[in-house]
């Protein structure tokens, strides 16, 4: 289980509708779970390739078209945190900010991985809130790569890859599942 919140930290300033300028840093995400041509996780855990490497800060745009998620590149991948241990407390795992607005997001979790998604399927048909449209609500839609997600989870497709090294997601009758993830917003000053 996870959330599926979309973020665009540009706040629609200067009509900037994509998240390509957003800078992401996930220092402990040195591993990932590859997907096949149908976006189905392979169940293996491998060293993160250069195009998906956010262990040092870089913009989403820098290597987005070098990936293999779609014919046009993009991100829809599970980044695995190398510092994860079962039962560990929540720790900061990802920082993302917009150089345009200075708005920053700090993501913390006690989970094994985060799914990073770059809005590859956004196609201009999902309406934005009226408050985001500067009076042009009838033509205000989320464009391609207009938002990104950071979905904290124990792994992806674990039930089909029980020997993969991912933590178990099995929940037996009478057991309780809890997860701790938080998103804190602030400002990055130049």
Automatic annotation (TrEMBL):
InterPro entries: Aldose_1/G6P_1-epimerase, Gal_mutarotase_sf_dom, GH-type_carb-bd. It comes from the Eukaryota. PANTHER family: ALDOSE-1-EPIMERASE, GALACTOSE MUTAROTASE. This is Aldose 1-epimerase. It comes from Tetraparma gracilis. The lineage of its organism: Eukaryota, Sar, Stramenopiles, Ochrophyta, Bolidophyceae.
């Amino acid at each position: 289980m996870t959330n599926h919140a979309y973020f665009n930290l540009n706040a629609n300033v200067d009509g900037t509708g994509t998240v390509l300028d957003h800078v992401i840093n996930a220092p402990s995400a040195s591993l990932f779970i590859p997907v096949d041509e149908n976006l189905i996780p392979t169940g293996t855990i491998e060293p993160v390739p250069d195009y998906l490497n956010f262990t040092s800060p870089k913009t989403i745009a820098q290597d987005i078209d070098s990936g293999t998620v779609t014919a046009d590149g993009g991100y829809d991948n599970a980044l695995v945190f190398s510092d994860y241990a079962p039962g560990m407390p929540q720790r900061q795992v990802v920082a993302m900010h917009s150089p345009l607005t200075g708005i920053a997001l700090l993501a913390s979790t006690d989970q094994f991985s985060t799914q990073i998604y770059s809005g590859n399927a956004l196609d201009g048909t999902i309406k934005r809130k009226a408050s985001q449209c500067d009076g042009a609500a009838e033509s205000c839609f989320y464009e391609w790569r207009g938002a990104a997600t950071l979905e904290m989870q124990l792994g992806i497709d674990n039930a089909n890859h029980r020997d993969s090294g991912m933590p178990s997601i099995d929940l037996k009758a009478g057991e309780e599942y809890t997860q701790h993830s938080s998103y804190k917003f602030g400002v990055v000053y130049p």
